[in-house]
């Protein structure tokens, strides 16, 4: 039996594929390579280049492989871009998922692990955020991810397709073996942008606002290592294989770091002064986002192994230092 990973050439997808392979799973990857990288995909996985919105392509993948379950990453994931181009997000994210679940229903595949996001919550009423918190997404990105979760809920009821939705907080870090890591064009995430300074690719880091109601005035986020996220997908798969019912889990470390704290840790890791300058707030940034991950730890028995942000930044730095141009494609 085979696990189909959509978006398996992307950042979190490729780390999950590596982890699946290392645990002896048979893996098929589907990716249109719009944001993913062919060389990020483990050579032990069978690779199909194509788009999940293409029903005949997807049917061929399901027909040629004995798919037991799907891990679904393929989606657009930039909050800002989703606000300026919502139709792209409804098309790629929602229609893509509609097409995928249609193929699953048609081929009798009834398990899916889904890559969701803290952006489904919007500005939280309280932190840490629990899964029962209200969902009020503030961008088409968060809105389409929430709509995808709702689509799974109805398809569970109607067709018995069981799902686990994993709502990630701030994914970061790279594989400890240094072979795969984060490579987005353009890059918008804090840690890789900070590391561009010691790489000589930018002069300084801009801090988006220092007048938030936090101790040092900068935004607080919950940074979680990509290998811990990968591990959670395998546990979610085991949970579905054991016949459990559909559910939603937050994935974060439960600890928050401010932008200034992250920059300071990056200075320690790289030994570079990393100049920083305060710039205006970025639209739509909540002051504090911290996950309660107690449910994933209890129910999935998830135990994040990278609970030190300095170590997390070290794994990212090892990757970027050795691959200053990312995958170079
Ligand atoms: N930041 C800066 N300067 C930069 C880049 C980021 O100060 O050059 C700040 C942001 O304002 C924010 C923090 O660093 O306060 C983290 O920003 P990221 O862009 O790395 O991450 P976000 O918290 O904005 O986004 C993450 C995920 C999204 C998800 C979102 C909401 O990457 O997929 O959380 O939950 F939608």
From TrEMBL:
BP GO annotations: galactose catabolic process via UDP-galactose, Leloir pathway
SUPFAM superfamilies documented for this protein: NAD(P)-binding Rossmann-fold domains
Reactions the enzyme catalyzes: UDP-alpha-D-glucose = UDP-alpha-D-galactose
Domain NAD-dependent epimerase/dehydratase intervals: 3-252
Residue ranges of coiled coil: none
GO molecular function: UDP-glucose 4-epimerase activity
Entry-linked CDD domains: UDP_G4E_1_SDR_e (cd05247)
Major enzyme class: isomerase
Listed InterPro entries: Epimerase_deHydtase, NAD(P)-bd_dom_sf, UDP_G4E
Biological or metabolic pathway of the protein: Carbohydrate metabolism; galactose metabolism
Record's keyword terms, sorted: Carbohydrate metabolism, Galactose metabolism, Isomerase, NAD
Cofactor: NAD(+)
Family: Belongs to the NAD(P)-dependent epimerase/dehydratase family.
Subunit structure: Homodimer.
NCBIfam families: galE
Name of the protein described by the UniProt record: UDP-glucose 4-epimerase
Gene: galE
């Amino acid at each position: 039996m085979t696990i189909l990973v959509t978006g398996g050439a992307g950042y979190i997808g490729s780390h999950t594929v590596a982890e699946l392979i290392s645990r002896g799973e048979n893996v098929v990857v589907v990716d249109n390579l719009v944001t993913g990288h062919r060389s990020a995909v483990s050579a032990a996985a069978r690779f199909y280049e194509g788009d999940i919105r293409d029903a005949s392509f997807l049917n061929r993948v399901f027909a040629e492989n004995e798919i037991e379950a799907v891990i679904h990453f393929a989606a657009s994931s930039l909050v800002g871009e989703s606000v300026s181009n919502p139709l792209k997000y409804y098309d790629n994210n929602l229609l893509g998922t509609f097409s995928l679940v249609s193929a699953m229903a048609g081929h009798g595949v009834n398990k899916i692990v889904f890559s969701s996001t803290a952006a489904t919550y919007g500005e939280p009423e309280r932190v840490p955020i629990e899964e029962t918190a209200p969902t009020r997404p503030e961008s088409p990105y968060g809105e389409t991810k929430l709509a995808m979760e709702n689509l799974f809920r109805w398809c569970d009821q109607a067709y018995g397709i069981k799902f686990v939705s994993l709502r990630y907080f701030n994914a970061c870090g790279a594989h400890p073996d240094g072979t795969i890591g984060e490579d987005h064009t353009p890059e918008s995430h804090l840690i890789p942008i900070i590391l561009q300074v010691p790489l000589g690719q930018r002069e300084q880091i801009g801090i988006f606002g220092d007048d938030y109601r936090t101790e040092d005035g900068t935004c607080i986020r919950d940074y979680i290592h990509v290998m811990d996220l990968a591990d959670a997908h395998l546990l979610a798969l085991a949970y579905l294989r054991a016949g459990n019912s559909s559910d939603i889990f937050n994935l974060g470390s439960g600890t928050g770091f401010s932008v200034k704290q992250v920059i300071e840790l990056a200075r320690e890791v790289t030994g570079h002064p990393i100049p920083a300058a305060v710039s205006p707030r970025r639209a739509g940034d909540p002051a504090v986002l911290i996950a309660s991950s107690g449910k994933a730890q209890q129910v999935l028995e998830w135990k994040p192994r990278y609970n030190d942000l300095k170590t997390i930044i070290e794994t990212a730095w090892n990757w970027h230092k050795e691959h200053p141009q990312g995958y170079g494609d």
